[in-house]
Amino acid sequence: MRNPWWPGSPLAPAALAALASIIGFAVPPYAHGATPPDPFFGTWSLERERSHYAKDAPPERMTIVMEDAAQGLHYQSSTQYTGGRAGTSDYTANFNGTPTLVVGDTGFLAPVSLRRVDGATIEATYTIGLKKIAWSRWSLNADGTELVVTTTYLGKDGENCQNVAAFRRAKSVERAQ
Question: Do 9 and 95 sit in the same domain of this protein?
């Protein structure tokens, strides 16, 4: 007996259509021409043991959440420092270099402007008035699981100081259906 799903069978076109519809649903939307998610988006946790700060110890804990925003990103961070001090920051910025306000738990912080260098690198510049007071380079590793933020800032004596903060992408939590 001949298999009805075999090529040449009258049912072969139906089998191919069914297979195509299954594959179509299994392939991520960006495989069909949509834009893949930005590799920076997600939740990032500080790896304190891999981080180095110029003047002080790295924070005890820091979490950054970056989400999609029109032509840019929405950034939120929460930081716990040694001694119990805590801080937050929040802003939404695009990648065209326009300064945007940063709001912290103590009020307004230095405005930031972002520029996308490539798919794995963002540069941030922090200014007060017309003076650049700090600049950062955010770099992702090849598989998008590690983020290194290298920030250079002007110390009290005008010298350049550098902080290197290493982050690991937080594992996503599956939601119950």
Answer: no
Burial category of 99 from C-beta neighbours within 10 Å (exposed 0-12, middle 13-18, buried 19 and up): middle
Q: Do 77 and 2 fall within a single domain?
A: no
Q: Would you call 19 helix, strand, or coil by DSSP?
A: helix
Number of domains forming the structure of the chain: 2
CA distance 80 to 149: 17
pLDDT in tens, 63-96: 999 999 988 999 999 999 989 999 999 999 999 9
Residue 175 inside a domain? The answer is: no
Both tokens of residue 145?
A: 């699981």
pLDDT in tens, 128-159: 988 999 999 999 999 999 999 999 998 888 89
* Domain span holding position 159: 42-169
CB count within 10 Å of CB 158 equals 6
Residue with the two structure tokens 């298999």: 3
